[in-house]
Amino acid sequence: MKLARFYLSADALLVFIPLKMDVSVVIPLYNEAESLPELVAWNSRVLESNSLSFEIILIDDGSSDNSWDVIENLSFTNKSIRGIKFRRNYGKSAALNVGFEAAQGDVIITMDADLQDSPDEIPELYRRIKTEGFDLVSGWKQKRYDPPSKTIPTKLFNWVTRKMSGINNLHDFNCGLKAYKREVVKSIEVYGEMHRYIPVIAKWAGFKKIGEQVVEHRPRKYGKTKFGMNRFVNGFLDLLSIFFVGKFGKKPMHFFGSLGVLSFVAGLSIAVWLIVEKLVDIANHVKYRNVTDQPLFFIALVAIIVGFQLFLTGFMAELISRNSTERNTYQIEKHL
Length: 336
Hints:
- By secondary structure, this protein is of the alpha/beta class.
- Helices cover 46% and strands 14% of the residues.
- It contains ten helices and nine strands.
- The protein has helices at 36-49, 67-77, 92-102, 122-131, 148-165, 182-185, 198-204, 230-248, 252-283, 295-322; strands spanning 3-7, 14-18, 23-29, 54-60, 81-85, 107-110, 136-140, 178-181, 210-214.
- The strands form two sheets. It has a seven-stranded mixed β-sheet, sandwiched between helices. Strands 1-2 form a two-stranded antiparallel ribbon.
- Helix 2 (67-77) links the parallel strand 4 (54-60) and strand 5.
- The two termini are 33 Å apart.
């Protein structure tokens, strides 16, 4: 990254003023030392041949190999290379979030470090953001070099995500190759394992012009995949979290309170009906059962208790939300 430097005082306070930049390529990595030199050279060649000013940000997610040594050597020979190293492995979402904070380009490109994403796709992704006005363009690996044990769950995962998020034009939410308008990455927070749902997070943040581009999927050249089958279970739980926070984050009582009232009313109605039924039988001198002898009474009692607890949960969540520093933080697109 090219920087302008100057000193403010004799206390050696160094201030960096970033220059305008076209593209920031953000690449999270974990034990990918073998692929980094080829990946960086490929990215640099593509970006320079298209006359784009750029920076490449490599985030070492606590690698146990010599990935950081490789990054240091690359940065020494190429001033467009920036490196960030975690003390331990935090996960891809954390790496992307830190990369987004550091990125200075007008368009931010993300890709994986395993050479399965092709940097040759960058110029078209950049063009679609800059000239077609997309907020986000996600890659679609239409032809994959993965075993069925990975592709079949991925298709199911993408189908569920489309239905729950309402983003019906995306086929591959988990593709690492994506392009973002600068405002998008500066307005969202990625944590946990939410990197799979960045298009969903962006949509909830108000960025609704989301496109897709068919991209090349290349066979892995070095090493082996770092992801197991547990990512699908975690991914589904993360989707539920995003859906809830995005829709009810600022109004939790609307969710818990509604469920609580429905459960409470249903339980109370059943209990009242059982009592009235008994009173009618007594009035008509008909043999009757005690209310507490009927299993339906205990179902009603559980429903009342659960409804009351859900309502209290909503009330407590509302109090916590009201005390949040972001309770009145909103995405503002323009000012007049």
